[in-house]
Please model this.
Amino acid sequence: MKAMVLSSGGIDSTTCLGIAVEKYGKEQVAALSVFYGQKHDKELQASDAVARYYGVEHETIDLSAFFLHSNCSLLKHSDQQIPQEAYAEQLKSTDGKPVSTYVPFRNGLFLAAAASIALSKGCDVIYYGAHADDAAGNAYPDCSSAFHKAMTDAVFIGSGEQLKLEAPFVGMTKAEVVKTGLSIGVPYHLTWSCYEGEDRPCGVCGTCIDRAEAFRLNGIADPAAREV
Amino acid sequence: MKAMVLSSGGIDSTTCLGIAVEKYGKEQVAALSVFYGQKHDKELQASDAVARYYGVEHETIDLSAFFLHSNCSLLKHSDQQIPQEAYAEQLKSTDGKPVSTYVPFRNGLFLAAAASIALSKGCDVIYYGAHADDAAGNAYPDCSSAFHKAMTDAVFIGSGEQLKLEAPFVGMTKAEVVKTGLSIGVPYHLTWSCYEGEDRPCGVCGTCIDRAEAFRLNGIADPAAREV
Model:
């Protein structure tokens, strides 16, 4: 196995998976999904569907125990409501801190767990879908290019120079991610982004707003929103 | 809660715990231990005893699922024997790679999991016991000062500048760690280091050899070796 891809079933990580399969071939790519205590499993269903579409090995791990003490609004045990507005609006009232849907050091923990598994499987690269819109204004500090650089160094050095991280979209907007994905035929109709777990995307949470805008800027309707 | 300390029940992390308790007081310190699939639970018993000695909150988490695919010789499911020689000897035949007791990205994963928990508990610093002898010759690359610097940056940036790492011994030898610990009365008689899980330390694995030497250089016998 060559490459591991963190796959959440959303736009960004599915595009990452498409890129990795293009580059290495499906036999050399493993997808890794994470249950972290989120309110619903729609995104895990989506990551399953995406992995089947690409024909890659797929494993889901459980990291929920490490967020039991967190009151992040994405978590099932939280008493916080998921905000119904764009991240830019939310950031006006966080006093410089991350938004309420920031799961404590989530990307750091996901990447570290992926690194331990990837090393055991002989992979030498991990892909993940951090992009610039999520990092803007410190909404999700573990999506920033500064975090990516530091975590890449930590994984490379801490693995005895056996493993690298790749975040191909860390300097891109979500619209640019979608543009990239459309050019390689990423199956966006199989993806799920909404933080709520209803039959259809709510359309008003931060990630629904971002997703709709990314497709609008590419001049097409969101294929998932029509089919769920 | 102010500080979290990664506690393995060995010399280095127990000295870290002593330092944190001296600095912040026992009410502000939480110890965190990890089951990762190791061959025995002697070190977890030791970390329990140490936490009780200091009167600090103590939690043990299970990260063994992430090492199921690894054949590291410390793991219960591995078919590799634990080497019976010093690290310097072992490194002569690893071709620049870590020793066989290197658990894939172990410190990275332990620190990332600690970071997620520490943020939820409102801690702003995590202590861990990496020291220079373990990093020498790339035996354990996730104990090096370069790893520490990168991981500290990753945690600080990825947490939205809410959390720091401290590795007070990263530039010290194990003998210097013991010297520090002796000066603040660390209960070394409660600690366990041996990679094997017999009634008494084997005396011939890499960590037994290092431990004995650290006490010898301080001019005293190992208190644990007499009492187990």
Observations:
- Strands of chain B lie at 3-6, 29-35, 57-62, 125-127, 164-166.
- Chain B has nine helices and five strands.
- The first strand of chain B starts at residue 3 and ends at 6.
- The two ends of chain B are 33 Å apart (CA to CA).
